[in-house]
Amino acid sequence: MSQYEHTCMIRGDGGQTLRAILDQICNKWTLLLVATLDQGRLRFSDLHQQIPGISQRMLTLTLRNLERDGLVARTVYAEVPPRVEYELTATGKSLIPPALALAGWAIEHVPHIEASRARYEQRR
To answer: Which among 37, 98, 28 has a CA at the least distance from the CA of 73?
Structure first.
């Protein structure tokens, strides 16, 4: 029996909650956004400029989801024009070490994965 076998039954909902959280956290835009906000508080336009390829709509949706989940804090300043800034919460900051570990694993295994992909394509 695997030491992780019990994780699919966490919270008695067949793992539905855990899968939903992991789907959000493992989203490519979430990881890029969290890594970018690790620099500190940023405005929407700064985030949009620093994350290549993300559309305004996807940035908005990802920020809303991260705010809903308590990983990002949104601060609105009563100014004209209004200023809105985003920053990681303590929970959001706690995501950095596992995200870096996962990125490190990916970097370490790139040659093996690329070689496996090439062998797979040659067989097809």
So the answer is: 37
- Give tens-digit pLDDT for 33-91: 999 999 999 999 999 999 999 999 999 999 999 999 999 999 999 999 889 999 999 99
Q: At what angle do helices 28-37 and 96-123 cross, to 10 degrees?
A: 140
- Tokens 């097809």, residue located: 124
- Within 10 angstroms of residue 36's Cβ, the number of other Cβ atoms is 18
Token digits of residue 40: 């500190």
16: which 2 tokens?
């539905």
Separation between Cα atoms, residue 51 and residue 31, nearest integer Å: 11
CA distances from 17 to 10, 23, 24, 65, 75 (A): 8, 10, 11, 15, 28
- What letter would DSSP give residue 48? H
**What are the DSSP E strand ranges found in the chain?**
42-43, 72-77, 83-88
Whole-structure pTM over 0.85, yes or no?
no
DSSP strand E in 78-116: where? Answer: 83-88
**87 strand-pairing partners:** 73
